[in-house]
């Protein structure tokens, strides 16, 4: 049998997350993402995904100290960051700098190093691209507060909480394309850094992590509510995909999109823009349901991720990289799960040539 894109094929067993695509539910290790967002912070959930249980306060402190201790960039990475041509995207730079790191002997130490260093790489490179002074990590701030601080130079607890909710909701999501890439690489008994490099390259594509900036482009093209229908119809006529809609697994509302939408309603900034996003969602779903009634196309997490990041005034150039800064946790947890119960991935190809 041949299953293009491996649609419907189960390739691994995992204890990390469960996606109920028909009912729009997502749990990490048995806990709903809504409960996780309400009760735990980034570091606690990263620990929970990597270890399988929540840390007590001593274990959390050790974990947080290890993360803080790995935020700083070694001099050679600083050199790479400033030497890569300025026109290269942040995802290119992230892929290159991460691949320059040597995996540590202990896989969890490597995971902590990668989770901790990614925000610093993203923020430093972004500020270099914008000709701004680079901001060093602040050890007094938690993971997400420090990330926003390194990007913007400001400490803003309310914004950090909003970004943290997004990062928690996107940390882990089953066997998505980038996670699969990480698992394929580690299944050859390669190391965690190589697995994460594969994942970052896969994340970059517009059908996966590259979608949020496409959502911004879409909304900028629409510009006003009266043009929504025309723009969407034209795109569909030209066989274009509407960015931020559709999902391989969810055939109803993506619970992460719904949760982010609720957060957006509480925001005060950019109300006009948010109104346009909400209206565009409504009109587009109606059009898609009419023109593609069997496809069950709704907004995915990327749609409202774009709205959240725009509201936080984060540059669209950063979106895919910020997504990678959360999904790194899921990548590492999956790679470790694969390593602990490994069978090399080696599917078949049906020859159809001469
Ligand atoms: N806009 C218009 N039509 C769509 C869309 C969309 N966004 N998504 C799917 N379809 C249609 C396809 O054209 C196809 O229709 P057809 O059978 O009439 O040709 C049908 O739905 C099935 O499409 P597939 O590509 O087979 O569906 P799949 O499950 O493989 O696609 C994907 C999932 C890649 C996410 C797709 O919905 C898409 O391209 N969406 C836009 C990009 C996007 O938002 N990506 C972010 C996904 S979330 C994430 O990765 C974190």
Entry keywords:
Citrate_synth-like_lrg_a-sub; three-stranded antiparallel sheet; mainly alpha; 3% strand; acyltransferase; Citrate_synthase_sf; binds acetyl coenzyme *A; 354 residues; 3 strands; Citrate_synthase_AS; transferase; single chain
Can you describe what's shown?
The chain has 354 residues and is an all-alpha fold. It contains 16 helices and 3 strands. The chain has helices spanning 33-39, 42-51, 57-69, 75-83, 90-99, 107-129, 143-152, 157-169, 177-186, 192-203, 211-222, 228-237, 255-266, 271-291, 301-311, 319-340; strands at residues 17-20, 25-28, 31-32. The protein has a 3-stranded antiparallel beta sheet with strand order 1-2-3. The two termini are 20 Å apart. The structure holds acetyl coenzyme *A. Residues 5, 176, 207-208, 211, 241-248, 292, 295, 297, 300-302 line the site of acetyl coenzyme *A.
Question: Which structural category fits the helices and strands?
Answer: mainly alpha
What is the number of beta strands?
Answer: 3
Estimate the strand proportion. under 5%
Any ligands, ions or cofactors bound here, and which?
acetyl coenzyme *A
- The separation of the N and C termini measures 20 Å
Rounded mean pLDDT score: 94
Gyration radius from CA atoms, angstroms: 20 Å
In N-to-C order, the SSE pattern is EEEHHHHHHHHHHHHHHHH
Which word captures the global form? globular
Low-confidence region ranges: none
Continuous helix count: 16
Kindly state the percentage of residues in helix.
Answer: 55-70%
Strand order of the largest sheet: 1-2-3
The major sheet is characterized as: 3 strands, antiparallel
